[in-house]
Amino acid sequence: MKKFSVRGVIYVLVILLGLFSALPNLLPASAQQKLPEWYTQNQLSLGLDLQGGSHLLLTADTAPLFDKAFDDMRESLFKQFRDAGIRYQVQSAAKNHLQFTLMANANAQKAWDILTAYRYSTEGKPQFAIDRNDNVISVALTDEYKTALVNDAMARSVEVVRRRLDETGLVDPSISRQGDDGVLVQMPGVTDPSAIRDLLGTTAQMRFHWVTDGSQRTGVIRVPDMQGNTTYTLEKRVAMEGEHISDAQLAFDPNTGNPVVNFKLDSVGGSLFADMTRSHIGVPLAVVLDGKVITAPVIRAVIGAGGGEISGDFTANEAKELALLLRAGALPMPLHVIEERTVGPDLGSDAIEMGLTTGLIGAAMVLALMVVLYGRWGVIACTSLAINIGMLFGVLSVFGATLTLPGIAGIILTLGMAVDANILINERIKEESRRGKPAGTAIRAGFDKAWSTILDSSLTTLIAVSLLFMFGSGPVKGFAITIGIGLFTSMFTAIAVTRLLISAVTRGKERQVLQFPGYGWFTRKAGTPINFLRGRVTGLCVSAFLSVASVVAFFTPGLQYGVDFTGGTLVEVSTQHVQVDELRSAFEANGIEGVSIQEFGNQGDYLIRVPVADSPSTANAEGVNTEQSEPDTSYQVAQSGQVAAVKQVVQSLDKDATFPRVDMVGSKVSGGFADASILAVLIAGGGILAYLWLRFESHFALAATATIALDLTKTIGFFALTGLEFNLTAVAALLALIGYSINDKVVVFDRIREGFRMTPDKPIEEVLNSSITATLSRTVFTSLTTLLALLPMGIAGGASVASFALPMLFGIVIGTSSSIFVASPILYYLGKRREAKGLAQLRPTSEEIRESLAHIP
């Protein structure tokens, strides 16, 4: 009794802590002002799809970074060779690989000593791979050094992006590194990120070069001006890097009134600038920004004030932006926008209202069903479920999670799946009570028998959810985190809270037999199981036919892929008087090809899809060297131009048109997403197969995996026939269905395994029929509660979650029926085959092995 009391106190403290953590999310602003800030800040933040805003995913172009490191090494190396009198002849210097031949054998050892000094960095790590074949030497960047360069450049890039956004006065932007070469920028409240996109896409690498008269043939470069009208011949050697600029501000020329940029140099830059101007009186000094000459004034006198003025054909806004870029610093490598998503504030508020409404309706329906099914025991389950949701919000708040629309879907699905554990417990206690066992014994036996099933089903679901987190991005990760945390809180509340409440209600009545409501067909007497396997051939044939038809539908008519898979631009448009034909004609007249227009929602609401923009090859027509390899932004410009062009066409027809949502996904993102999605599904199936193989037996694992494959093909067919958009939300639905479907099959298989252990001599057909019958009420009730939880979202959720809710509703029906009419017949045939080989249906337990060894004389 003392032990139970201590455990009960711990449970109560954990519950109170979770609910206390969730409370700030419900407190009004007036109440929050009276509480400590550390407590009130413990809240969920709303995702961009719920509050409106934009997110940009930028990827780094690492080629210029490697080129600069290689060029610096080459120039420094050959300078030392020249100083040491070592003659050489360059054979090739392309793709960061240098090959040259030493002209004099006497200098070979000295040259090798110089080369060796370049092999390792100051930290002792190899930077260059050096290969020598007689007098022919090859030098190339090592992969380890490239990785180190990228990691350092990415860390600096994140800081530069943060400084640039801070300079704009943008409130609470979120900047984080994404993968190996990506930067994710989330900006609440920003619904037109075009200016931010341009700001972040500018490298702002400024350098100073001396202008030459063109008489030199080597050591020079040709660089165009900003307008492309004039080409300057400059010394290739950089006179001074822009990194020495410590401040820059917009100003106006007192003589002309034109906007200029006044800059200040740090102490090192000021001293260097004075020295270089002293020796170049009368020589033009070109200011080069990202490979283009801004201005090239002639030096009339020594500039020793530690600063200067940049003038050009600027507007005030252009000069202000240039000053901002110089203050924030240059990016070490170009960043290109490859994904852009924008949600208007109105759409965000509608999403919140929809999520709350459908969530509350779904929860109310689930709780009402539990009370109808189990009476007072259902009230206990409802209390446990309410605590579960409260603790889920508490844990999410502690981690500072961001609540998104898929996250709300995850919470609703968590509620539906959490009911399963409570139903399992109630059904087990009901079975023990029908055998005449008193309350205390029935409760202990019910929880003990339900625990193994709950653990197996939760772990298999966790495998699928983990893959969602590993391979998903953005909202999918939020969905995975919600489900993952929900699984743990559900296990805690089902095993600990529900048991605590049931024990409290039955205290003093431990010797009485508990009474549960009965439901006719679901409460068949022991010994009279339903003969489900009688229709095994029909079940398998129907399932196979539907799966084959789904595979055919996958090719014809095929799936309606979203921009997450195909790349391109999706713009949601809301107009008053524009018709589809008018839009289509306007797009054709403006040369926008391949546009797909889909009506949805209310009249005047359209989804406009434009295929991914092609990136034309950019070649230097003059065939001359440029100051640096310019980043290929043609794709970025073309893709961004699609959004502007679509908006311009629509507004030419209706100037009051609004654009609640914009999604722009590049081919790199879409290709990687498609590969990751396929890999996630395959690994999910493999992980679940391996787990079931270890926990059960090979034929159990094969039966479950084959059934999951059949369920998935039918769901794919559902997407093809209904024309639902197949996007990242759809992939989340597929992986969630894998978890849900395997969860259902584990419950049935767990009872079959129990039947094999209790009656090993019983025919396999009878064991399967009795096990399916014993779990029938749980299977139907769990599916019904999950359906009720998702039904409001499926009906009223709108286009944003249709790709999740509708296939989930379909999948629940398919998954439930397949557990009875597909998985069990497959297990039957595999079991008969195993039986024919003289093998037992289950491997012996450790206790059975010890017992058999004890009888050996």
UniProtKB/TrEMBL annotation:
TM helices/strands, residue ranges: 354-374, 379-399, 405-425, 454-473, 479-502, 537-556, 673-693, 700-720, 726-743, 780-802, 808-830
Single GO biological process annotation from the record: intracellular protein transmembrane transport
InterPro entries reported for this sequence: SecD (IPR005791), SecD/SecF_arch_bac (IPR022813), SecD/SecF_bac (IPR022645), SecD/SecF_CS (IPR022646), SecD_1st (IPR048631), SecD_SecF_C (IPR048634), SecD_SecF_C_bact (IPR055344), SecDF_P1_head (IPR054384)
Sample GO molecular function, one term: protein-transporting ATPase activity
Transmembrane keyword on record: yes
Domain SecDF P1 head subdomain, first and last residues per copy: 227-332
Membrane-protein topology: Multi-pass membrane protein
Gene Ontology CC terms, in alphabetical order: plasma membrane
Major subcellular site: membrane
The Protein translocase subunit SecDF P1 domain, residue ranges: 154-212
Subcellular location field: Cell membrane
Residue span, Protein export membrane protein SecD/SecF C-terminal domain: 337-498, 646-832
Entry keywords, A to Z: Cell membrane, Membrane, Protein transport, Translocation, Transmembrane, Transmembrane helix, Transport
Gene3D superfamilies cross-referenced by the UniProt entry: 3.30.1360.200, 3.30.70.3400, Multidrug efflux transporter AcrB transmembrane domain
HAMAP family in UniProt: SecD_B (MF_01463_B), SecF_B (MF_01464_B)
Function: Part of the Sec protein translocase complex. Interacts with the SecYEG preprotein conducting channel. SecDF uses the proton motive force (PMF) to complete protein translocation after the ATP-dependent function of SecA.
UniProt family annotation: Belongs to the SecD/SecF family. SecD subfamily.
Subunit structure: Forms a complex with SecF. Part of the essential Sec protein translocation apparatus which comprises SecA, SecYEG and auxiliary proteins SecDF-YajC and YidC. Forms a complex with SecD. Part of the essential Sec protein translocation apparatus which comprises SecA, SecYEG and auxiliary proteins SecDF-YajC and YidC.
Name of the molecule in the record: Multifunctional fusion protein
The species this protein was found in: Alteromonas confluentis
